Amino acid sequence: MNRWEKGGSLPKRDNVEALNDALGAEGALLATWRSVTTGNGLPEWVAPLSGTRSQ
């Protein structure tokens, strides 16, 4: 079983984008990944404006 499936690690953004496209998720998978990795659900470009940290 994959570490992603077991919750041992998160996929990198490029892998999430590829999965999102392959599954036809229309951005939903990427939005969820962004929410989990940044902890705030804001788009990455907002982080410098809001004082939050982007990954």
Question: Can you describe this structure?
Answer:
Helices cover 55% and strands 0% of the residues. It is an all-alpha fold and 55 residues long. The chain has one domain (10-50). Helix 2 (13-23) packs antiparallel against helix 3 (28-38). The model has no long low-confidence stretch (mean pLDDT 80).
Q: What is the N-to-C order of secondary-structure elements (H for helix, E for strand)?
A: HHHH
The major sheet is characterized as: none
Helix/strand structural class = mainly alpha
Mean pLDDT reading: 80
What's the helix and strand layout?
Blueprint (H helix, E strand, L loop, with lengths): L2 H4 L6 H11 L4 H11 L8 H4 L5
Helix pairs in contact: 2-3
Task: Report a brief summary of the structure.
With 55 residues, the chain is mostly helical.
Name some characteristics of this structure:
about 0% strand; about 55 residues; globular; mainly alpha
